[in-house]
Hints:
Helices cover 52% and strands 6% of the residues of chain A. Chain A has one domain: Alpha Horseshoe (Serine Threonine Protein Phosphatase 5, Tetratricopeptide repeat), CATH 1.25.40.10. A two-stranded antiparallel sheet of chain A has the order 1-2. Chain A has 162 residues and is mainly α. Helices cover 36% and strands 25% of the residues of chain B. In chain B, a hairpin with a 5-residue loop joins strand 2 (38-42) and strand 3 (48-53). The interface between A and B is large, with 40 and 49 residues. Strand 3 of chain A pairs antiparallel with strand 2 of chain B.
Amino acid sequence: MGSTSTFRRKSILAAALLSVCGVAAAGLLPLPMQTPLSQPAQAAPDAYQKAKGDYDSKNYASALAQFKALAAAYPRNALCHYYLALCHQALGHVPQAQQEFQVVQQLDRGSLGQYAAQGMRQLSGARSSSGSGAITIASAGGASSTQARSKVRKIYEFYADW
Amino acid sequence: MFDATKRQFTDISFEQVNIDEPSGQELAGRYGVTGIPRLVFLDSSNQVLYNGGAPMDAESFHGLINQHR
Lengths: 162, 69
């Protein structure tokens, strides 16, 4: 029981701390303000922390493998599936990310499910990357998508001082 | 990484946008930028080709650009 509550507390703390940054490390989605308390993992705090550490360090492939193992062990833990989705998203695996976001929505009707819904909306119209580590969105920012292949002429990089 | 890539792809205009500045906020609003770092690729008609996270290394950044060239 102690292990379970510790894992739960650590999950909450980790998500809360990361949410202060406003966005996930992938730069695509906000992290949850709350963890799915209805679906805590039974144990595995060390594995979770290691997986989350790799995600935080942007080692998405490694984090993905670890969260897959965690999700297999705790299939009803929405947080594991959410991180799985974020890992897939960061790696450009759009269909897999969408699938995991759907799982999160099924498992959690609260804030995490809402974030997953936001992820689904963000991925709509996206196509898979072949491993560039990013997601390609064919239509965004109100622009219409065209079948004709256009060439990039301008690139904006958005940043902040802080 | 951005400057090095800028030098390599001379046919593309690169611009860094500070979202803390008014002009940056206007652009961020136009493209729905809510998190950073963020990249937006435009074609010659200012149609958005890509709007998403920034790769963490130059090789991935170049690969992403080449997908849209």
